[in-house]
Design brief:
Strand order of the largest sheet: 3-4-5
Number of helices: 3
Largest sheet: 3 strands, antiparallel
Strand content: 5-15%
Radius of gyration: 27 Å
Helix content: 55-70%
Order of helices and strands: EHHEHEEE
Bound molecules: zinc ion
Structural class: alpha+beta
Shape: rod-shaped
């Protein structure tokens, strides 16, 4: 008899929550990075935002896959190694009860059937979790990109208000400041005659 250990643990919401958070946060971060590197004009354009969006989707997919492996595969491997170590020592794979000398087929400590070996599988629970995680992560990526775009556009509107205040208060020449978090590496600039734009 084989003790099957699924890649995804029984409490699958931990795996799903981790994939959702990682996909959302990494798409927000990477969309910001690429969008501000490529586009310096103010305002939103679907055609210009497509490339940063695809890039953010790819990066978020990689990050979510790494997160999935980290959250599921590492605990599953630890569980497998512990079970194998207990089995080779003649103990119950689950609770470690010493079964040597026992004639029953069920552990008298935890009620689990005794097994010969443990193995890691990608079973129904794992497949179902991945099937739920994919659309969830896509929603998280769309949400992350929309949040990033919203942050960029709202800051551009705020900068335009600052520039009009600067001019109405008698300011002459150029006006510039760094963008706020998470885009502090780039700047917003107003140049008389050219208007407002961003820089790297
Ligand atoms: Zn046991």
């Amino acid at each position: 008899m084989i003790y099957h250990i699924e890649l995804v643990p029984r409490r699958r919401w931990i795996s799903l929550a981790a994939a959702f958070i990682i996909a959302g946060a990494s798409s927000l971060y990477w969309y910001n990075e690429f969008r501000l590197m490529e586009i310096h004009d103010f305002g939103f354009s679907l055609a210009r935002s497509l490339k940063p969006g695809v890039f953010a989707l790819c990066m978020a997919t990689i990050a979510a896959c790494y997160g999935f492996v980290f959250v599921n595969a590492i605990p599953a491997c630890v569980h497998l190694l512990r079970s194998q170590r207990r089995l080779s020592a003649g103990r119950c794979h689950l609770c470690g009860y010493d079964r040597r000398g026992s004639n029953t087929q069920i552990c008298s400590e935890c009620g689990e059937p005794f097994v010969q070996r443990a193995s890691l599988i990608c079973g129904r629970r794992t497949i179902l979790t991945v099937a739920i995680a994919v659309p969830m992560c896509l929603c998280a990526v769309v949400g992350g990109i929309a949040t990033a775009e919203g942050l960029i556009l709202s800051e551009e509107r705020a900068f335009e208000r600052e520039v009009s205040n600067f001019i109405s208060n008698g300011g002459v020449g150029m006006y510039a400041r760094a963008r706020r978090w998470p885009n502090g590496y780039s700047s917003l600039v107003y140049v008389p005659g050219r208007g407002c734009h961003g820089t790297d």
